[in-house]
Amino acid sequence: MASVVLSEAEKLYIVHGVQEDLRVDGRGCEDYRCAEVETDVVSNTSGSARVKLGETDVLVGIKAEMGTPKLEKPDEGYLEFFVDCSSNSPELEGRGGEELGTDIANTLYRVFSCENSVDLKSLCINPKEHCWVLYVDVLLLECGGNIFDAISIAVKAALFNTRIPKVRVLEDEEGTKEIELSDDPYDCIRLNVDEVPCIVTLSKIGYRHVVDATLQEEACSLASLLISVTSKGAITSMKKVGKGSLDPESIFEMMETGQRVGKSLHIALQKILDEEESLGTSRPKVGFLG
Question: Model confidence over 150-173: pLDDT tens digits?
Answer without folding.
Answer: 999 999 999 999 999 888 777 776
